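Predict the 3D structure for this chain.
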Amino acid sequence: MNAISRRVSTGIFASARQEVNSLSRDASQIQQWRGIRVKVRYGNLERALAIMQRVMQSSGVERLIKREQTHHIKNSEKRVLARKNLERRIRSQDLARKLQTILIKKVRGL
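Done. Predicted structure below.
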């Protein structure tokens, strides 16, 4: 049973690898492709696919694939993305400002 699930999983994951490899041609925009391996235990392919989806989501591969899609993005999704980008930019500016004040104090010897 394990051999059968290996054959099935390699067939499924091979097509996913081809899709990601086609997306990863533009190396300046997309991170270097890192392989994701998931073990199929006790022939439970559904569980392995759920684990793979969770790992892909946490590693950012899912975001990279979504970013490359050219279909219509709903206005609510655009608002959420814009808000997240704004929060990220504000957080980055705040951290840069704090770091600058720390470095200035350190240079002045205060």
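The radius of gyration is 21 Å.
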